[in-house]
């Protein structure tokens, strides 16, 4: 190890995100086993999030219809136009991401100061309680307030990404990230099933049963996090004395905390050779990202690699010039945030457009499907994503890297979004089973493309900055994506209202194709 030399740095003085998950040494490294308890906790928390978000969309239009006549004072559903329902459904769907956007700047600092676990606990328990409250909501305005509060208190996704990055190392990060994507996709597959199977179970409160089931799942995830998930933020763990059973990544963070001056027991910093390499690897990668291409720092980094004797000096050099560059000014950070925001905008608009397209009448450019049909289509798409994430994402990510996969995900997303409404071109006399089969295939293709894009961007974000700013990076990404998600449902509702108006007045042929093409562009 002492004689090993580092390959020359790139022009930017750092490794690109596409190869960030690969080990530095030339020989392949055996994958470190994943911490099962920690991964299981965040898996269930992320799965519960997917259930809560996706469960709402199949029944969103019908949920708003149940409140709209009383809110309008019109005396009956027949007096309520589809345009009013579409706009109100879009605004209700926008409340949750709007709350996320408003609270993300605060939650990012909490993640980096108080730790990851408190944010997860507040998010899980509040999501469970407010989901049940939504099922009991007496009016549209109360539902808006509930969804807005649920978004403000929920920062589960940034916390899950931080925990995943800190529980893993370079040898198993792609596999762990694929599990987190799998959890989200499993939740999005089960959410519509819950909505379709449980809606109407309580006649007086037809939407209470699916909301209560989603709430119970979130509360169960919070209980597991409370009991079995350790705190992964290095500074909080160092103050509490650490844990003898930490995985190698936890030991790495302990080493860096000890170098930085925290008083920890020396026995907690005994590392194997592989862990020492990981500590140096992360330190130097964070240093080069912070400093850019500096020949002096490159020389110090290369010298530090020889026996690790100068690692404290390298870290001290990084700290002395940290003020030169803010974390959000580092090359690549803004591109990652912009990519995450755009892909979130595309898919939240699709989540709003497709149920409206499927539920609207034939003369309004729709397909006249009911809640159970929509739930089946969305569930098939989720199941396809489940299989693809489990079997294809890790090997593809290892072979092609994050950046190439991200570009492919964007291109495939655009193509699949434009193709999604094509089954509506089938003649009215076509068998209903054929229509549903075509919609299931189109939905599966759209969801697989989105999985490629989201999995790639999540792993890219995990390797863009060091753990010191990981919470702020993920929370800022959540804030920007939430702004897109807050605008997306409203934009989707307005876009579909325009398509319905064009279909009813005959001002444009096939307006449903134009609506989905606009999202693809």
UniProtKB/TrEMBL annotation:
Residues 38-521 form the Major facilitator superfamily (MFS) profile domain. Gene3D superfamilies: MFS general substrate transporter like domains. GO terms for molecular function: transmembrane transporter activity. Keywords: Membrane, Transmembrane, Transmembrane helix, Transport. InterPro entries: MFS, MFS_dom, MFS_trans_sf. It is a multi-pass membrane protein. The keyword Iron-sulfur does not apply. The chain crosses the membrane at residues 176-201, 207-229, 332-350, 374-393, 405-422. GO terms for cellular component: membrane. This is Major facilitator superfamily (MFS) profile domain-containing protein.
């Amino acid at each position: 190890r002492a004689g090993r030399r580092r390959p020359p740095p790139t022009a930017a003085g750092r490794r690109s995100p596409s190869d960030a998950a690969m080990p530095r040494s030339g020989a392949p490294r055996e994958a470190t086993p994943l911490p099962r308890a920690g991964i299981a906790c965040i898996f269930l928390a992320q799965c519960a999030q997917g259930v809560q978000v996706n469960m709402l969309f199949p029944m969103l239009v019908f949920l708003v219809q149940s409140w709209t006549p009383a809110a309008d004072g019109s005396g009956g559903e027949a007096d309520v136009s589809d345009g009013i329902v579409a706009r109100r459904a879009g605004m209700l769907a926008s409340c949750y991401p709007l709350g996320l956007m408003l609270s993300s700047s605060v939650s990012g600092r909490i993640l980096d100061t108080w730790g990851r676990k408190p944010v997860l606990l507040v998010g899980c328990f509040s999501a469970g309680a407010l989901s049940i409250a939504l099922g009991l909501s007496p009016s549209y305005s109360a539902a808006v307030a509930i969804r807005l509060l649920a978004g403000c208190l929920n920062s589960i996704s940034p916390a899950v990404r931080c925990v995943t990055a800190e529980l893993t190392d370079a040898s198993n990060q792609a596999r762990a990230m694929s599990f987190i994507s799998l959890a989200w996709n499993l939740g999005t597959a089960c959410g519509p099933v819950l909505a379709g199977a449980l809606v109407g179970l309580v006649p007086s409160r037809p939407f209470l049963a699916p909301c209560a089931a989603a709430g119970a799942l979130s509360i169960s995830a919070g209980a597991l996090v409370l009991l079995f998930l350790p705190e992964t933020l290095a500074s909080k763990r160092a103050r509490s004395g650490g844990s003898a059973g930490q995985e190698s990544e936890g030991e790495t963070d302990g080493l860096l905390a000890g170098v930085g001056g925290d008083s920890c027991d020396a026995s907690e910093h005994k590392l194997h050779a592989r862990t020492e390499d990981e500590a140096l690897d992360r330190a130097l990668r964070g240093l080069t990202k912070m400093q850019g291409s500096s020949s002096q720092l490159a020389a110090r980094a290369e010298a530090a690699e020889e026996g690790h004797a100068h690692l404290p000096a390298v870290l001290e050099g990084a700290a002395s010039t940290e003020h030169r560059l803010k974390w959000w000014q580092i090359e690549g950070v803004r591109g990652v945030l912009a990519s995450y925001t755009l892909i979130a905008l595309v898919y939240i608009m699709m989540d709003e457009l497709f149920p409206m397209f499927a539920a609207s009448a034939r003369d309004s450019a729709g397909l006249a499907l009911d809640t159970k049909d929509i739930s089946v289509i969305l569930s098939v798409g989720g199941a396809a994503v489940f299989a693809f994430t489990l079997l294809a994402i890790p090997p593809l990510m290892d072979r092609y890297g994050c950046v190439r996969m991200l570009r492919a995900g964007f291109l495939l997303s655009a193509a699949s979004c434009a193709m999604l409404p094509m089954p509506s071109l089938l003649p009215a006399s076509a068998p209903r089973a054929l229509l549903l089969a075509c919609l299931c295939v189109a939905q599966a293709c759209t969801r697989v493309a989105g999985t490629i894009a989201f999995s790639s961007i999540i792993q890219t974000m995990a390797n863009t900055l060091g753990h010191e700013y990981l919470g702020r990076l993920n929370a800022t990404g959540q804030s920007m994506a939430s702004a897109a998600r807050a605008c997306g449902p409203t934009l989707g509702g307005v876009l579909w209202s325009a398509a319905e108006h064009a279909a009813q007045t005959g001002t444009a042929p096939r307006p449903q194709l134009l609506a989905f093409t606009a999202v693809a562009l």
